[in-house]
Write a structure and sequence with these properties.
This protein is α+β, with helices and mostly antiparallel strands and about 90 residues long. It is built from two helices and five strands. It has a single domain, classed as IHF-like DNA-binding proteins (HU Protein, Chain A). Helices cover about 35% and strands about 30% of the residues.
């Protein structure tokens, strides 16, 4: 499902205009991104939670040469599935 298809589904279920549904979806996405970028966790009970995942620095290998390389520590967004979506 694309974002446009998702907005159309929201429009059909709520009776909102496409513009209002698109604004609501954009506001939701923007808010989740802001919260996670700030280092906080946002939880939707039963659905799941968005948080920051931290990866430690580690040693890796260049697959072409086999030489060892240092991979820096990094952070990325993470979604953990809630109870309603587990076991689908």
């Amino acid at each position: 499902m694309t974002k446009a298809e998702f907005i159309a589904a929201i429009t059909a279920k709520t009776g909102l205009s496409k513009t209002a549904a698109a604004e609501a979806v954009d506001a939701f996405i923007g808010t989740v991104v802001e919260v996670v970028k700030a280092g906080d966790k946002i939880t939707f009970t039963g659905f799941g939670s968005f948080s920051v995942s931290e990866r430690a620095a580690r040693t890796g290998r260049n697959p072409q040469t086999g030489a060892e390389i240092q991979i820096a520590a990094s952070k990325s967004g993470k979604f953990t599935v809630g109870k309603d979506l587990k076991g689908l």
